[in-house]
Amino acid sequence: MNKHIKLLYQISNSLKQQKLLKSNREFSSLFLNKCKNYLSSITYLNKEPSIRVLSFLLYKLTILNIMPDIQIKLYHIIQEKLSKKMK
Fold first, then answer.
1. Whole-angstrom Cα distance, residue 29 to residue 33?
2. Which residue among 6, 10, 35, 53 is the one 20 to 30 A from 77 at the CA level?
3. Helical H runs in 1-87?
4. Does pTM surpass 0.85?
């Protein structure tokens, strides 16, 4: 499992502890704006989440005004991915 997938699970678990959602499937649809199987699919394929998915997650966390440390981490990951894409 790559580091970005681990981060998504960490965020999902934290949101579940805060009672903001009930499952990883709900996380995929509400916080990643993807189908309910998205997180399990990228985990199985060991595929990194897209910039769009990470951006939407950052947006949702910002709107809800939660997890500022994770927001910063997501911002840096997005910047890193964009800089690689521009090369």
1. 5
2. 35
3. 3-17, 24-30, 38-45, 51-64, 68-86
4. yes
